[in-house]
Design brief:
The chain has 332 residues and is α+β, with helices and mostly antiparallel strands. It contains 9 helices and 12 strands.
Amino acid sequence: MRDVHQELTDGIVKALEQGVAPWQKPWDAGTSFMPYNPTTDNAYKGGNVIWLMTVANQKGYTDPRWMTYKQAQEKGWQVRKGEHGTAIAYWKRTETVKEKDPETGEERKVERNLDRPRPFYATVFNAQQIEGVPALQTKQLTWDPDDRAEAILSASGAKIIHGGNVACYRRGPDDIKLPPRASFRDAPAYYDTALHELGHWTGHPSRLNRQFGDRFGDANYAREELRAEMASLFISAEVGIQHDTSNQAAYVGSWIKALKEDKHELFRAARDAGEIADYVLALERAKTAQAEAEAPELTSEPHDEEVATQLEPPDPVQYYEPEPQVDWGYDR
């Protein structure tokens, strides 16, 4: 029987061994570049995101749209002769069954939860493998990426300390250490690093409560780094800033080892990374909703100075003076 989970994991490991970050996919500022299905307009999730980005890198695809042969046909599009699809994997947790209505006796379809999830596989093709697909309409963002990233950091309430030359999350004092902003080559590099450390921050027992490693190189440490790296990729893509993979080299060996030992680790890590991204973005949405609810209603058109007194500025990220260097925790 075909083992798609093993195939996908082997593909990721091979890319890592060749020195290529499999999820490295550049996108222009102000746009989002994550795999999605144009026939359903749904984004791919979990390990499938990482795998489709890996294949796109290897084959030079610049289009984020992927779909099955049948979905393309239903749209009147045609997969080119000789093209090979890409396998993706899901866990099926429900199934649709037919049963008779006890009152009418009519047969109806009912969705039931499975006692145990079952693997489900599909083959998808990139839009560049298909004829007749309309030109890609780039999804332009309606916000400034740097402003959005700053708002996410602020909404988290995380304690961020600037100083020194190491970026890390410290579990004991529950804070994030970052070098001064001027130490980064540009704003996107700063925010990408900050979002990576914010991913670690979510693992605190009072938040998502993940198991951290005891030291660099051990199994739990490597797994936590993999989750934070994937989470920062997901959040960076949502925000529209360039994801930086230049700091991954130190962890590649540990990632390869973890993936080789467990073919399901890639999917577990991507699932957890999705939870991290959802958690962080939910904090931002809650902060925005609260600010909108608390904003005073203006019954007339006041002068500029009146507006300034009625509307409070957003809370800034809380920055602190550097403390003496101690246990650095999780480094970039």
